[in-house]
Design brief:
The protein is of the alpha/beta class. It is built from 7 helices and 11 strands. Helix content is 32%, strand content 24%. A hairpin with a 3-residue loop joins strand 10 and strand 11 (181-184). The protein starts with a strand and ends with a helix.
């Protein structure tokens, strides 16, 4: 059986390892079937995408709409863009979470900017009629809670995309391109323990004032977030 590929851009070892563990938990893949490449660590090596059942792109500190970008961010965006050229052209299985919607949305001609940024929180996501019919959302309720926390979002849906889910505070929570290329604004890999760990890691990253970290944790802890991980399980079941 082919492995899946997880592309990460988190420079903090703890955050990168936590993200990898969260994807393993939700997909139920053995570690040997989820290869990881940390994009921030160096140029993307030559890849034969036929070696993989599908590609995941995790979140990270970069924003596609940043006015000023470091050399590392520029390189990562260039590498991801070249990969998306092939993925979209061939309609290969792809799932981008959070940063994935910014990169795919920009790649496909959408508008990504800070208009619909959301604080770190659990929000109610609602499926569109097309979302209710999509195989990746099989078994997912029409409305469900999901964890978010982002400084930018897709304000204008790409002309190539089909909207699958929305929320009151962020109209584009999930879309697909062609048949097999997906992206979400929310983090399907996160449960309460994982988002609390991430909040502590990123308390100085500008998502909230560092003095508010315990209050943020207290707001997140009672959340019941169980449905989003089903998307990752469905992705593996469909393409693996």
């Amino acid at each position: 059986m082919k492995p899946f590929l997880l592309l990460s851009s988190r420079p903090e070892d703890e955050a990168a390892d936590e993200e990898h563990a969260s994807f393993l938990r939700c997909t139920a893949l053995p570690a040997a079937r989820l290869h990881r490449i940390r994009l921030e660590a160096g140029p993307l090596p030559a890849l034969d995408l036929d070696d993989y059942a599908g590609v995941f792109l995790g979140g990270g500190p970069f924003n596609s709409s940043d006015a000023e970008k470091s050399a590392v961010q520029v390189r990562v965006e260039r590498d991801v863009g070249r990969l998306l050229d092939e993925i979209v052209d061939r309609d290969l299985p792809f799932f981008g979470a959070c940063y994935g919607i910014g990169t795919l949305g920009t790649h496909q001609g959408g508008v990504v900017d800070p208009t619909y940024a959301e604080p770190v929180s659990a929000v109610q996501v609602t499926l569109t009629p097309q979302g209710r019919e999509d195989p990746l959302l099989a078994g997912v309720p029409d409305r469900f809670s999901a964890f978010v926390g982002h400084k930018e979002a897709c304000r204008v849906l790409p002309p190539t995309a089909l909207l699958l889910a929305s929320s009151a505070t962020c109209p584009v929570q999930m879309f697909k391109v062609k048949r097999n290329v997906y992206a979400t604004q929310f983090h399907p890999e996160l449960d309460v323990a994982a988002i609390v760990a991430r909040v502590r890691i990123y308390q100085h990253a500008g998502y909230f004032a560092p003095s508010e970290v315990e209050a943020v944790v207290q707001r997140l802890t009672p959340a019941v977030v169980t449905a989003p991980g089903r998307l990752l399980a469905n992705f593996v079941a469909r393409y693996g």
